[in-house]
Specification:
This protein is an all-alpha fold and 480 residues long. The chain has helices spanning 9-14, 33-44, 58-72, 92-110, 113-133, 137-140, 143-159, 166-169, 171-183, 191-211, 217-229, 234-255, 260-279, 310-336, 344-363, 366-369, 381-389, 406-413, 416-423, 431-445, 449-459, 466-472; strands at residues 288-291, 303-306.
C-alpha cells in the first residue's frame, strides 16, 4: 500500500472503495499462544493448569521447622546453631546430626513415620561419621564435634518413647563432657562457646535427674567456669544448684544408702530450700492472678495465673513438681518410720503442701489452653476477631474451630508433665479427674498426641513414675 490519502493507489487501480489504513506506529505484536491454548482446553472441557512452584522436600521442611522452633523463633535455646542452617556450612557429621534431629522433630510435630525412619538413618550415619572424626585429634578439639554430641543427644530425647537404662540415657552428654575435658575449659573463650557449655550443663543435669545418676565433678567445674564469664541471675543459679542436689538425692535413694531417718532429713531440708526460693522469686518472675466470678471447663478454681513468659512458668512448674514428689516421699517415709506417731503433724503439712502445689500448677493452665478466655490473645490475629462474634464450633476432629501457632502448641506441651505429676499425687480427690480432663482436651483441641497418651496412663491402674513419663515426653528436649 502506498498510503496515499483519500484512497490508496491499489484501490484506485482496482476500482474499489478504499477503507483506509492503520497507523503502523501503533501496531503491537503480542504472543497469544497460551491464551489460545487455554481457550481450546476450556472448549474441550479440560482444566486450565497454572504453573506452580515445586514442593519443598521433607528434609528442607524438617530443617525449617526445627530451626524455627529451637534456633530463631519459639525457643531460641539452640540459637548458637544459626550459623549452620545451610548444610554446606558445617562438616558432614554435624550436618547429618542436624538433619536427623530435624526429621525427628518433624515426626514429633506431624507424626510422620517416613520422617522418623529417615531421621534414624541419618542418626546412624552421623554416629558412624562422628566415630571416624574422633580418631583425628584436630577434629576432637573443634566446636562442631562437641555440637554433634549435643545434637545427637537431643535426637535421642525426642525419639525415645520409652525410658532407657541409666548409661544409655546419658551416653551422649557423657561424651560431650569428655570432649570438654580433653580440650580444657581454658580453650572456651567466646560467647558462642559459653552458650554451648550452658546447653551441655542443662542437658547433663536433666539426664541425671531422670536417670537417677549423680552429677560428676567435671560438670560442676564446667558450671563454675561458665558462671564466671556469663551473668546469671542469682535465683537461676540457686534453682540449678537445687536440681543438682535433687539428682544426688535420687541417686542415693536408688542405691539405698540412706536410712529412713536420713531420707526424711535430706528430703525435708531440700523441700524447705525449694520453698524458700519459690517464695523469694524476683519481680520479673512473678505472676498475676485474675479472679473469676464463675469456673469454666478450663479453670480448676475461681482464678487463674498469668506468667510474663512461658520459660518462667515452666521453670516454676518444674520446681513445684519436684516439691510434690519430695512431699510424697516424705509421707511414705513417715508411714514407714517406727515412730510414725510423732510424724502426724509433718504428714498433714506434706499433704497440705501437695494440695497447694497442685493448685498452683493448675492455675497456670487457662493462660495457655482456654482459647475462649485467658488464652485468646495467643490465637492468630485473624482468629481473635472471629471469637468475639461466635463460640467455638466443631471443625474437623479437633473441634477447635480455629488455628493455633506452633509456639502456642509448644506452650501447651509443657503443661503435660506437671499435669501428670499433680494428677497422680496425693492431693484432693478432684485433682486427678481434672488433670485427666485437661490432658484429653489438650490432645484433642491442640492435636498433641502425647497429651492423650499421658491421660490414658493417668486413667490406668498402674502407677507410672513421673520421671518415666517425663522421659516419654522427650524430657528436656522440649524445655525452654
Amino acid at each position: 500500500c502506498d498510503l496515499q490519502s483519500i484512497a490508496c493507489g491499489q484501490c484506485v487501480r482496482a476500482n474499489v472503495s478504499c477503507s483506509g489504513y492503520r497507523d503502523t506506529q501503533q501496531l503491537r505484536i503480542q504472543n497469544e499462544s497460551q491464551s489460545v491454548v487455554r481457550r481450546a482446553l476450556k472448549i474441550r472441557g479440560a482444566p486450565a493448569c497454572e504453573p506452580r512452584s515445586l514442593p519443598l522436600s521433607v528434609d528442607l521442611q524438617a530443617r525449617d521447622i526445627f530451626f524455627a522452633h529451637y534456633v530463631t523463633s519459639t525457643s531460641k535455646c539452640w540459637n548458637f546453631l544459626e550459623q549452620f542452617y545451610y548444610p554446606t556450612d558445617s562438616p558432614d557429621h554435624l550436618t547429618l546430626a542436624i538433619e536427623a534431629v530435624s526429621l525427628a522433630y518433624l515426626w514429633h510435630q506431624v507424626y510422620s513415620d517416613v520422617a522418623l525412619a529417615s531421621g534414624r538413618e541419618r542418626y546412624i550415619a552421623a554416629l558412624r561419621m562422628t566415630s571416624k572424626t574422633l580418631e583425628c585429634p584436630e577434629e576432637v578439639a573443634k566446636d562442631t564435634t562437641l555440637l554433634t554430641s549435643l545434637v545427637l543427644d537431643l535426637f535421642e530425647k525426642i525419639t525415645d518413647s520409652e525410658p532407657r537404662n541409666n548409661k544409655s540415657s546419658i551416653s551422649h552428654v557423657n561424651g560431650a563432657l569428655a570432649l570438654v575435658k580433653i580440650r580444657g575449659l581454658e580453650h572456651f573463650q567466646d560467647s558462642f562457646q559459653f552458650r554451648v557449655l550452658v546447653r551441655l550443663s542443662n542437658h547433663f543435669v536433666g539426664s541425671c535427674i531422670v536417670s537417677g545418676s549423680i552429677v560428676p565433678e567435671e560438670l560442676s567445674a564446667t558450671r563454675t567456669y561458665v558462671e564466671k564469664h556469663l551473668n546469671f541471675q542469682e535465683h537461676t543459679l540457686q534453682l540449678s544448684d537445687l536440681m543438682i542436689q535433687y539428682a544426688k538425692l535420687r541417686n542415693e535413694l536408688r542405691r539405698g544408702i540412706l536410712s529412713n531417718k536420713e531420707c526424711i532429713g535430706v528430703s525435708m531440708e531440700l523441700d524447705i530450700k525449694l520453698q524458700t526460693l519459690d517464695l523469694n522469686m524476683p519481680p520479673s518472675w512473678q505472676y498475676s492472678t485474675t479472679i473469676l466470678d464463675h469456673k469454666s471447663d478450663r479453670t480448676f478454681d475461681f482464678h487463674f495465673d498469668s506468667y510474663p513468659h512461658r520459660n518462667i512458668c515452666q521453670a516454676r512448674n518444674f520446681l513445684r513438681v519436684v516439691r510434690i514428689l519430695l512431699n510424697e516421699s516424705l509421707i511414705n517415709y513417715y508411714l514407714e518410720s517406727p515412730e510414725s506417731d510423732k510424724y502426724l503433724a509433718p504428714m498433714r503439712v506434706a499433704h497440705g503442701n501437695i494440695e497447694t502445689l497442685a493448685g498452683e500448677l493448675f492455675a497456670c493452665v487457662p493462660q495457655y489452653v482456654d482459647c475462649d478466655g485467658a488464652a485468646r490473645q495467643r490465637l492468630p490475629t485473624s482468629e481473635k476477631s472471629e471469637l468475639l462474634y461466635r463460640q467455638a464450633r466443631d471443625c474437623g476432629p479437633s473441634g477447635a474451630g480455629h488455628l493455633h501457632t506452633p509456639a502456642h502448641q509448644a506452650d501447651c506441651y509443657t503443661l503435660i508433665f506437671p499435669l501428670y505429676a499433680a494428677g497422680r499425687s496425693k492431693a484432693a480427690p478432684d485433682v486427678r479427674p481434672w488433670a485427666i480432663k485437661q490432658l484429653q482436651y489438650i490432645g484433642n483441641h491442640f492435636y498433641i498426641r502425647n497429651a492423650e497418651a499421658v491421660a490414658q496412663i493417668l486413667e490406668g491402674e498402674t502407677d507410672v513414675s513421673p520421671w518415666e513419663v517425663y522421659a516419654i515426653l522427650g524430657s528436656y528436649a522440649f524445655n525452654a
